[in-house]
Write a structure and sequence with these properties.
Layout: H1 12-18, H2 23-32, E1 40-50, E2 55-64, H3 70-73, H4 78-84, H5 90-101, E3 107-112, E4 116-119, E5 122-131
Antiparallel strand pairs: 1-2, 2-5, 3-5, 4-5
Amino acid sequence: MTNDPYKEIFTPAVLQDLFPADRSDSFFEALYGDTEEGAYDIALDYQGYAPNSRSLHFVFNLSERPDKCLACHLTHGLPEVFSRHPVIGVADLINKINGLLGEQGKCGEWQLGATQNLSRKLYGVPLTIKLR
């Protein structure tokens, strides 16, 4: 993903603003009724732009919390949960990204990919946004 005209938009500060760190606790509070039940913290990371497919690539990084087992709490259905859960708010996230793009493009269809094991304490849920 070279020649990325969007990398200057999606800085760490912007990503933090798009998906604040406290959203993890809100997600587990809504899911389990207790933030202590959460096995991981969720953060949004920008992976780059693919000009051939005209798509932006992000990942929801799931980092294991201390004294928790990340692998024990993941399911194959996590992308489906993320896509519909109001606290994760993917549709709202897409709208905010669309606003950041300005004249550089408009968001079209989006898709969450299968959960990926990136390391023992890190998993990822890819988010791909096609540009129109």
